[in-house]
């Protein structure tokens, strides 16, 4: 096998390895996105629960306050009933009305807080529903990832062995060039030569369409071990089987 063929072989296996790995990474990314969304919802739920607890505590304190106001009112009413003078009666009545107004104020605040608690309960119900839904999606994403690991895992280790074998027959320098290009172009390290016009001997890089001088093309057909790279995108160029056939006949 010539150098270009060895590289082509490596290129094809490498693409398959990358494809399988990316199937795993996409499943992992999907799962972590779902987990993050679920955590955000759980944080939101905790915040709502904390606010609810605080409001309930305030309402509880006000209930105690109202109870002591009621005791005070009861006492004032008794004093009013047994008022000896008109002046005393008027003074007690004024105080009674003041305390009553204060009671209403406390009561109004509590009512407003209770409304808030009701609103929080509605929000909590919505969030709980969202959490339940998100948990289902997260669990599904998790089992999909496990499934994919099972499916892909075995095939991936097979392909990784194949890739190592394919890389072993490529000279170190060429391999370094290949690896660097594969890194840059997400596996697309090689490009086929495209025939633009045979009569005018016009050829181009199949990836970036840059014109390739005919001398380079003939180097590839002369079975030399030279590596031809696209002058623009620098990918390693190869010739597809059918073109190799037609050019060889000339
Ligand atoms: Zn190119």
Tell me what the structure shows:
This protein has 250 residues and is of the alpha+beta class. It has 2 domains: 12-168, Helix Hairpins (Orthogonal Bundle); 175-249, no CATH class. It is 77% helix and 7% strand. The protein contains 5 helices and 4 strands; from the N terminus they run αααβββαβα. The protein has helices spanning 3-81, 86-168, 172-184, 214-221, 241-249, and strands at 190-197, 202-205, 211-212, 236-238. Strands 3-2-1-4 form a 4-stranded mixed beta sheet. Helix 1 runs antiparallel to helix 2. It is rod-shaped and about 130 Å long. The two termini are 23 Å apart.
Question: Helices and strands in order, then pairings?
Answer:
Elements: H1 3-81, H2 86-168, H3 172-184, E1 190-197, E2 202-205, E3 211-212, H4 214-221, E4 236-238, H5 241-249
Parallel strand pairs: 1-4
Antiparallel strand pairs: 1-2, 2-3
Concise account of the structure shown:
The protein has 250 residues and is α+β, with helices and mostly antiparallel strands.
* Distinct compounds present: zinc ion
Structural class: alpha+beta
Number of contiguous helices = 5
List the secondary-structure elements in sequence, H or E: HHHEEEHEH
Oligomer: single chain
